[in-house]
Amino acid sequence: MSKAPIRKGGKAKSAEAVDVVEFEQGEQVEHPAWGVGTVIKKEGTGDKQKLLVLFAEEGQKKIKVAFAKLKKVT
Description:
The protein is mainly β. The chain has a domain at 28-72. 0% of the residues lie in helices and 36% in strands. The protein has no helices and five strands. It has a five-stranded antiparallel sheet, with no helix packed on it. Strand 1 (28-31) and strand 2 form a beta hairpin.
């Protein structure tokens, strides 16, 4: 009979842990699938930050910043 591996202490970390960037209303952002959009509403801060972004082709999208791969457009 095979033995399952033993996990020792600590919390498991996400394979894609990322630093959360703060976004502000009016900023231009880029999403890998939806392109460039404008932040029209912001709720929360840090890893709980949510945005409402208006994209030209896709319309309005609600986005959880901690999970989206958004970049600020400069």
